[in-house]
Amino acid sequence: MKLLVEIEDQLAGIAAGIMVIAFTERYFKIPYSKTLLIISLIVFFIFLILDIIYNFIDVGGQHIGWMLLGLIHSLIEMALVASLFSWLIKINIPYLTELVVPYFDNPSIVLGVGFFFVIGSLIWLVIYFTDF
2 in a domain, yes or no? Predict the structure, then answer.
């Protein structure tokens, strides 16, 4: 258990993904989407850190393959969240600002990141509830 339930990081991922998709304004708009996106990214980043810590605490309770896959997925999401945060508030994060942030000038890439957050979190929810 991280804070309240085991799946709270997936719920934060879905919320952050929806906010990223809303920020592109391609499918729908949410008022104050930039502010809400920054808040949701911060919350999601905190839950990603807790998820990584929990993965190492719960080593005996899961298959090593799932643990490594979850760790890699969380690290990729952390890099994307930090890159989006850097892009939104115009701060310099070494390596990410130079290598990843320029891709966010293309709205399709930002939309793809939002879908990655939502779909990735939904897949982990399915795995959690089906006891795969």
Answer: no
